[in-house]
Design a protein that fits this description.
The protein has 135 residues and is of the alpha/beta class. Helix content is 48%, strand content 17%. Strands 2-1-3-4 form a four-stranded parallel sheet, sandwiched between helices.
Length: 135
């Protein structure tokens, strides 16, 4: 099973995990978050983030998917320093559909999980119109 680490601003990671737990019916295993506040020094958070990646990959060894919120922002920059192609991969733009899709396909190989998570994230973005909402 692939571990998932959310690195995001403030309490966004906690909120996403709370919502995913509601959708999935229980708290998924091997799922952690690291919240980054305006007062945090990214250099100080990097060892903690590395430790979390190690913990998530320790038992299962299937790899780790890091989900971050905004590309180029501090959480994403921290995540980018943790990437190891084929072992630790990352996606920015995390949203609830992306997380639920990632949780649903985490027993697949990491490259498959990446594609499923990204398609879930983008596929979950829908312009709600009157016609769509009535169907």
């Amino acid at each position: 099973m692939i571990g998932i680490l959310i690195i995001a601003h403030g309490s966004l990671g906690d909120s996403l995990i709370h919502c995913a737990t509601h959708v999935m019916g229980e708290r998924p295993p091997l799922l952690k978050q690291l919240g980054v506040s305006v007062h945090d020094d990214p250099v100080d958070l990097l060892p903690l983030a590395r430790s979390m990646v190690s913990e998530l990959n320790e038992d299962e060894g299937g790899g780790v998917l890091i989900l971050s919120d905004i590309y180029g922002a501090t959480p994403c920059n921290i995540a980018s320093r943790l990437l190891e192609p084929g072992r630790v991969e990352g996606i920015s733009g995390v949203n609830l559909p992306m997380l639920v899709r990632a949780l649903s396909y985490r027993n697949e190989p990491l490259h498959v999980l990446l594609e499923k998570a990204m398609s879930g994230g983008t596929g979950g973005i829908i312009h709600m119109t009157e016609d769509i909402c009535k169907s």
